[in-house]
Specification:
Elements lengths: L6 E5 L4 H12 L3 E6 L2 H13 L3 E6 L5 H15 L4 E4 L16 H29 L2 E6 L12 H21 L4 E8 L3 H5 L3 H12 L3 H11 L9 H12 L9 E5 L7
Helix pairs in contact: 1-2, 1-9, 3-4, 4-5
Length: 265
């Protein structure tokens, strides 16, 4: 197994991507610690992991609260003997689909502030423990919006660019301590859209185009990616497990292009 005896913390572990990655980590042998604001959603994922023979624990943690995240990371490290892997899969509701002329400063700035805050807080919390053990992997999440241009996603596009820059520089901060940092950049994942706040986000684009969200995703799949499809949750989760494993030990400071060819590096 890729992650046998590894200790992994997943912030936003009750969400679509966080939950999928948690299941993949557990399947590959990791002990998974799920953190998030809605305990009931975390418990569903933990129960599925347990039913499949894996190990998972849950904790109600606000990933925007530095002290709460620190306390949780300290508790996990004390209980597990360390933290080997961390993923920030926290989702922040925000506005998309609004053109610049109608976009308020608050709606523009909110995702930038929120996403960069939570990524900083969680990375710093787990890095303290990874530095002591001389190893670890920190995974972040971005989208093609970091590199694309267009209308309706100015705030979130800047956010994703910031997360990718943060990840690259964080790799430099922590590399001497044996800690790797990898940013996962998938395109829109239809299964995740159905199960998360992103359906509402894409609703703004769909409404302006006079189509449904399903039609919008189908159009993106038809016209954007080289593979003429969008990534699946399983594909993103499986790559996350690989990136977190020793088999990807030479990878750090990298942005993993999981867009099915919507972007070409």
């Amino acid at each position: 197994m890729l992650l046998e005896n590894k200790m992994a913390v997943i912030y936003g572990g009750g969400g679509a991507i966080g939950g999928a990655v948690a299941r993949a980590f557990a399947r590959e042998g990791a002990m998974v610690f799920l953190a998030g604001r809605t305990l009931a959603r975390l418990d569903v994922v933990a129960q599925e992991i347990s039913a499949a023979g894996g190990k998972a624990e849950t904790a109600e943690v606000d990933a925007m609260d530095e002290k709460a995240v620190d306390r949780h990371a300290d508790a996990v490290a004390a209980r597990a003997g360390g933290i080997d892997i961390a993923l920030n899969a926290v989702g922040v509701p925000h506005v998309q689909g609004t053109p610049l002329a109608e976009l308020t400063l608050e709606d523009y700035a909110h995702p930038i502030t929120a996403y960069t805050r939570t990524n900083f807080i969680t990375a710093k919390a787990v890095a303290r423990h990874m530095v002591r053990q001389g190893s670890g992997v920190i995974l972040t999440l971005s989208t093609p919006g970091a590199r694309m241009s267009g209308q309706g996603f100015l705030g979130y596009g800047v956010t994703c660019g910031a997360i990718e820059t943060f990840s690259r520089i964080l790799a430099g901060e922590l590399g001497e301590s044996g800690i790797r940092v990898v940013c996962l950049r998938p395109h829109a994942i239809p299964e995740a859209v159905e199960a998360s706040h992103t359906r509402e986000l894409f609703g703004g684009f769909a409404e302006r185009a006079g189509i449904t969200v399903e039609d919008l995703l189908a159009e993106w799949a038809r016209t954007g990616p080289l593979l003429k499809r969008l990534p699946t949750l399983a594909q993103v989760a499986d790559f996350a497990a690989f990136a977190a494993s020793d088999r990807a030990g030479a990878m750090t400071g990298a942005i993993a292009n999981l867009t099915c060819g919507s972007l070409v590096d």
